[in-house]
Amino acid sequence: MTALLLFVSFLVLIFLGVPVAFSLGLSSLIYLIAVDIPLNIIPQKMFAGLNSFVLLCIPGFILAGNLMNVGGITDRIIGFANNILGRIRGGLGLANVGASMGFAGISGTALADTASIGAILIPAMKKEGYGAAFSSAVTASSSIVGPIIPPSLPMIIVGTLASLSIGDLFMAGAVPGVLIGLGLMIPTYIISVKRNYPKGDKKTLKEVWKSFLGAFWAILMTVIILYGILGGLFTPTEASIVAVIYALIIGLFVYKELPIKKIPEIMLSTMTSTAAIMLLVGFANLFGWILVSERIPQMVADLILGISTNPVIVILLIIALMLFVGTFMETIAGLVILFPVLLPVANTIGMDPIQFGVLMVLSMVIGLVTPPVGVCLFVASQIGNVSMGKVTRELIPFIGVMFVVLLLVAFVPQVTLFLPSLFE
């Protein structure tokens, strides 16, 4: 009965519009008062959830991404992608997807991708004659590769929750992220041809090479991070600090577009984003402790396995649950709450934890482009000055591509495990 009180209060707060972090904290407080548990357990469990060295890489990667974005890297990535793909029918849309793949190796988040690339390419696409809803749909859908292609903040959270290798999770997300990006180019091209969207001028080899040199330093940042972690040169936390130093050097001395007076503003933005994530993780750990105390993970496992012990059916049930939760809950919050609950189920059917981690992240990030919460969908709609309903209709073929990759991740283990196995 007390567990029911926990869930009911949490859902009521969510639907009242209370932020997820505070909904977790308030529902946990109501539960603790109802069962007469001393409230000093709250700071204890919150601290336990945050007392992880790996979590220190979150502000590092956020800061590095912000520095690179303000330092002119976004324009160069877009320019390089457009020089390669722009001459194809619908080339600016294809460049949008390509730029998102490049930017994913820097930001680690989908929202940063949508906001930065969308602010440039959505108006540019509209000016070239692309539909506003289509332009917004391409931007929103391609942004979800941000949390899949390394580095990835959701992967860091998953690794922390289950004591999994962050490096292995990063590598496991690389192939699915690239598959999504390449897959999204298919409907982008088909729709562009059907609607006779424009194509750009063919660029000379010299122009392509020049744009590559401009984007080279951004690409190198991703290589340094991955090689450093997988080669044992530094931990993920140390990698984030290396990324910050690298971003400062590139922004100040190579591109020379990072104003020193902007750095305090960037630091403040990074601290705000980090504080929001850390508060969420702390409250979610308290919430998770209550779930374990009430044996909810075991009950969920028994419920799912009671429906079927067939691994295919079990995986499909988990995917359906995650897709549903992702439509109304923020990605990191959903992962912190549900990953520890569902991991025992995955272990029971023999799914590798690394594969399951990528499956969970991908299932949740699809929710970023689906109503009613869909923050990337909302931001892209705002930039494109078009209703979410129209963008959602344009998103249907793109979401279909995401589902195909999701099923590949779920049922073809080598899609996620091949690259990590090379570095064992």
What would you note in describing this structure?
- This protein has 424 residues and is an all-alpha fold.
- Helices cover 78% and strands 0% of the residues.
- The longest helix has 31 residues, at 263-293.
Question: Which features does this protein show?
Answer:
about 425 residues, mainly alpha, 20 helices, about 0% strand, globular
Short description:
This protein is mainly alpha-helical.
| Spatial shape | globular
Poorly predicted residue ranges:
none
Give the structural class.
mainly alpha
Mean pLDDT, to the nearest integer, reads 86
Largest sheet entry: none
Radius of gyration: 21 Å
Discrete helix count: 20
| Strand-residue proportion | under 5%
Helix content: over 70%
Reading the helices and strands in chain order gives: HHHHHHHHHHHHHHHHHHHH
Number of strands: 0
> What is the end-to-end distance?
47 Å
Write the layout of secondary structure elements.
Blueprint: H1 2-15, H2 20-34, H3 41-50, H4 57-70, H5 73-85, H6 91-107, H7 110-128, H8 132-142, H9 153-162, H10 166-194, H11 205-230, H12 236-254, H13 263-293, H14 296-307, H15 311-326, H16 331-348, H17 353-365, H18 375-384, H19 388-411, H20 414-422
